[in-house]
Amino acid sequence: SVDCSFSRGVCDWKQDSDDDFDWNPADRDRGDGYYMAVPAFVGHKKDMGRLKLLLTDLKPKSSYCLIFSYRLAGERVGKLRVFLASQKPAPIWEQNKGKDERWRTGKIEIFQGAETTNSVTFESERGKGKTGEIGVDNVILTSGLCPED
């Protein structure tokens, strides 16, 4: 199991240098550490910001579960997508609006073939809105299938 919350800094996170803006740390409401966020007013509509988690030592022909917390707060804030390096160019997960400002849990099952995935990318696409933010936190990768709710 790999725990990649941002406060501990155990994982290898990289900002994409070819995108339009960076994700930035934001303090959690309870004050216990921080998460990564893109405020709604950063950049222009359709601009992208990508945050990549580099993965090492994943076993071929195995299953993994990627679990993460995410939040899309604000009117027309944009889109959050998740890509696997081996499965480009289509996202394996996408969310384009939140019903409210609450944090939710995303789960993605990753099946490794002969070629293993070496990164997971969280991509934020800027929307029309000027308030709110897109946030990601508590990224955990475990071996095996994702647990049922």
Automatic annotation (TrEMBL):
PROSITE patterns the record matches: MAM_2
InterPro entries in alphabetical order: ConA-like_dom_sf, MAM_dom, MAM_domain-containing
One Pfam family matching this protein: MAM
Domain MAM: 2-148
GO terms under cellular component: membrane
CDD domains in the cross-refs: MAM
Protein name (record): EGFL6 protein
Gene source species: Bucorvus abyssinicus
